[in-house]
Design goal:
The protein is flat and about 65 Å long. The protein starts with 18 loop residues before the first strand and ends with a strand. With 441 residues, the chain is an alpha/beta fold. It has 3 domains: 56 residues, Nucleic acid-binding proteins (OB fold (Dihydrolipoamide Acetyltransferase, E2P), Beta Barrel), CATH 2.40.50.140; 198 residues, Vaccinia Virus protein VP39 (Rossmann fold, 3-Layer(aba) Sandwich), CATH 3.40.50.150; 120 residues, OB fold (Dihydrolipoamide Acetyltransferase, E2P) (Beta Barrel), CATH 2.40.50. The chain has a 7-stranded mixed β-sheet with strand order 9-8-7-10-11-12-13, covered by helices on one side. The chain has a 7-stranded mixed β-sheet with strand order 18-17-16-19-20-22-21, sandwiched between helices. Strand 19, helix 9 and strand 20 form a beta-alpha-beta unit. It contains 10 helices and 22 strands.
Length: 441
């Protein structure tokens, strides 16, 4: 069977490079196939569990080796033809060669292995996962833009696998269709600019008001080029922003209008540089499940940490007596207050607080329940404070290793994991999102 990904010959290959026939046992957290040879782990990109493959060793370390997939002698029954024509080069997705319905079990197994190995948990209370459509789901993405002077062409795309080069694309099936439809027209528009090398990045966002394009530029954009970009925005009925080093300007429409998205019947207004969850369907299911697991009562208080613009706070406020939303970014705190006011929610208080400052954390009031949705790096600085709380704690994680690391002190402090699930926020990719409820015995 032909190789579907990373089949290019290595520039550093020599005649002495060792080649092996291996059986793939599992997938790593990087979505690489895992095999063993002479008591050493061999990672093989693009290989799937159960496959018999022929591999050339590219890099050998003391405890592991990196292999290049040369041939698939026996393919997995779950191997599929990638839906994207750019899969073999683009590094944005890592799992399109695996059937979508098989991706989530492997992600859960990844987290399961980390929990059992590092925390020695033998009985993990797994709940039903939150699933997603495999394609057309992503409502936010950042793409690189590069001008190739010698070829006099603009390319738009994501980084290639294992290097920093841009893989030129003309379609991205995981994007919401309205965003995907903008890639080729934008490439044509940028090719017509006088200063083609000025634009270095393009961010696409799907809002309830329509598609949004944010162009990152390294030098001022002159009048004629601005007119071309404005014409593009008018023609494609999208909002267009220009972002410099210290500036963010709405070019179209002339009068900037509020952007929003829906969750639990509330429209939450946001600004283009605010964080919003990339998968609308999974976000809604996640918010619903958070409310169910926390089992909030009308006389209780809820503390929402890393609250963003109120993605959890606004929908959950009606379930409790009072809610304190804490966010480290001042403008986003203002967005929480604004969204609460728009929906006549009076029991939310918003606070700007650096959650990395351990001393400041002890200013927070006691609460019956705590919800935290930290960044990929987790919430290590919060753990000493959280370990002293008696609250129910719901931890939303976008990186398995961060959840496992932060769970350890909670378990040692007398908490236990009552429920845990994985969420397929980003199908076709290696990313594993999860949610765990910690309670005291």
């Amino acid at each position: 069977m032909a190789i579907v990904r990373n089949g290019k010959k290595s520039a550093k290959r020599t005649e002495k490079a060792q080649e092996l026939d291996l059986i793939i046992e599992s997938l790593s957290h990087e979505a690489h196939g895992v095999a063993r040879h002479e008591s050493k782990v061999v990672f093989v990109p693009s290989a799937l569990p159960g496959e018999q493959v022929h591999v050339r060793l590219q890099k050998q370390q003391r405890h592991f080796s990196q292999g290049q997939l040369m041939r698939i002698d026996q393919a997995s029954e779950h191997r599929v033809e990638p839906s994207c024509p750019h899969f073999s080069r683009c590094g944005a997705c890592q799992l399109q060669h695996l059937a979508t319905e098989q991706q989530l079990p492997h992600k859960q197994d990844n987290l399961h292995q980390q929990l059992t190995r590092q925390l020695k948990i033998t009985d993990i209370p797994w709940q039903a996962p939150i699933t997603s459509d495999g394609l057309g789901y992503r409502r936010r993405a950042r793409l690189g833009v590069r001008y190739r002077k010698q070829q006099d062409e603009i390319i738009i795309g994501f980084r290639e696998e294992a290097n920093k080069h841009l893989a030129a694309i003309d379609t991205c099936p995981v994007l919401e269709p309205t965003l995907n439809a903008l890639i080729v027209p934008m490439q044509v528009c940028l090719s017509q600019l006088q200063a083609k090398a000025v634009i270095t990045q393009m961010e696409l966002i799907a809002s309830d008001q329509g598609s949004v394009v944010v162009l990152r530029h390294i030098k001022a954009i002159q009048k004629d080029d601005r007119l071309l970009l404005t014409s593009f925005a008018q023609q494609h009925a999208c909002h267009l922003y220009l972002q410099g080093d210290d500036t963010l300007e709405c070019v179209y429409p002339e009068t900037e209008t509020a952007l929003s998205y829906q969750v639990s019947g509330f429209d939450l207004e946001f600004q283009v540089k605010d964080f919003i969850q990339g998968n609308a369907k999974v976000n809604q299911a996640m918010v619903d499940l958070a409310g169910q697991w926390l089992d909030l009562k009308p006389n209780e208080t809820l503390l929402d940490l890393f609250a963003g613009i109120g993605n959890f706070s606004i929908p959950l406020a009606s379930k409790v007596k009072s809610l304190l939303a804490v966010e480290g970014v001042g403008p986003m705190v203002q967005r929480i207050e604004h969204n609460a006011k728009r929906h006549n929610i009076s029991n939310i208080s918003a606070m700007a607080l650096n959650l990395a400052d351990e001393e400041l954390l002890f200013r927070l009031p006691k609460a019956d329940a705590i919800l935290l949705d930290p960044p990929r790096t987790g919430a290590a600085t919060l753990m000493p404070w959280l370990c002293k709380q008696k609250s129910r704690i719901l931890y939303i994680a976008c990186e398995p290793s961060s959840l496992v690391r932060d769970a350890k002190p909670l378990l040692e402090a007398g908490f236990r994991i009552e429920k845990i699930t994985v969420m397929d926020m980003f199908p076709q990719t290696k990313h594993v999102e999860s949610m765990a409820l910690f309670v005291r015995d």
